[in-house]
Design brief:
The chain has 265 residues and is α/β, with parallel strands linked by helices. It has a single domain, classed as NAD(P)-binding Rossmann-like Domain (Rossmann fold, 3-Layer(aba) Sandwich), CATH 3.40.50. Helix content is 40%, strand content 14%. It is built from 7 helices and 7 strands, in the order βαβαβαβαβαβααβ. A 7-stranded parallel beta sheet has the order 3-2-1-4-5-6-7, sandwiched between helices. α3 runs parallel beside α4 and α4 packs parallel to α5. The longest helix has 22 residues.
Length: 265
């Protein structure tokens, strides 16, 4: 522990599994007091129990429940007096190929990944102190490339990436920095929620891993470590930025040497 977040009060949405849970743990390790939200009361309770009581509290709240989110903010202000760090990690992913995607799917993805982010940031602004703070949005490598099976998710994450810029510009005077962390292929429960059978999911996973320059999926801790930096005072000169943590997948033109026509041997 290096106490990079010592004394800070943080809220992590979707903090009861995957990247969110790891971010909660890392924030605690760095000295923050952490509140987490999620949809499943049981996994929220399990997370709080496993990570230790005292500087952590879990509150059931769906990302699309705007009044409920305000009640969470009110509780934080009542108990802590302020909010220093907001990590809007909650989000969903669904396969939405052209030709077989329903209007309900589009609405669900836009509501959860875009509308709720805008409304949550808007609601949270008054709860930050005059000295400002940090808001971290959850993007994705999908905003950097075309994904034929995930066009709607990709569009929502492109919107979130722009939110980081627009919100930072709007909140300059309030000294609230807004940045985006964009995970690549990360081994989390979200991957299994795409709805693919296990054999197709394994085939897809192997294909994706073979295209990653580092040759493997990332971990939730890789993303959480980046979130710690963006939440800390170390990133005071960083705003409106997007930190793509994907093992080089979206940034490098990657071909293994034995597959390269220039170096066939």
């Amino acid at each position: 522990m290096s106490n990079r977040l010592n004394g800070k009060v943080a809220l992590v949405t979707g903090g009861n599994s995957g990247i969110g849970r790891e971010a909660v743990q890392r924030f605690l390790e760095e000295g923050a007091t952490v509140y987490l939200t999620g949809r499943n009361p049981k996994t929220i309770e399990d997370t709080v129990e496993s990570l230790g009581r005292g500087k952590i509290a879990g509150i059931p709240c769906d990302a699309n429940d705007a009044p409920g989110f305000v009640r969470v903010l009110e509780r934080i202000r009542k108990e802590q007096g302020r909010l220093d760090v907001l990590f809007l990690n909650a989000g969903i992913a669904e396969l939405t190929p052209l030709g077989s995607t329903t209007e309900e799917q589009v609405d669900r993805l836009l509501d959860t990944n875009v509308k709720s982010v805008f409304l949550s940031v808007q609601s949270a602004i008054p709860y930050f102190p005059e000295t400002g703070g940090a808001i971290i949005l959850s993007g994705a490598w999908l905003a950097e490339c075309g994904a034929p099976l995930l066009p709607v998710v990709s569009a929502t994450k492109a919107a979130v990436r722009n939110f980081a810029r627009s919100f930072s510009a709007a909140l300059l005077e309030k000294k609230i920095r807004v940045n985006c962390v964009s995970p690549g292929a990360i081994a989390t429960p979200l991957y299994r929620r795409l709805g693919l059978p296990d054999d197709q999911l394994n085939e897809l996973s192997n294909l994706v891993a073979s295209k990653i320059p580092l040759g493997q999926f990332g971990t939730a801790r890789d993303i959480a470590n980046c979130a710690v930096y963006l939440a800390s005072d170390e990133s005071n000169y960083v705003l409106g930025a997007d930190f793509v943590v994907d093992g080089g997948f979206s940034q490098l033109l990657f071909t293994r040497t034995n597959e390269c026509p220039v170096h066939p041997d």
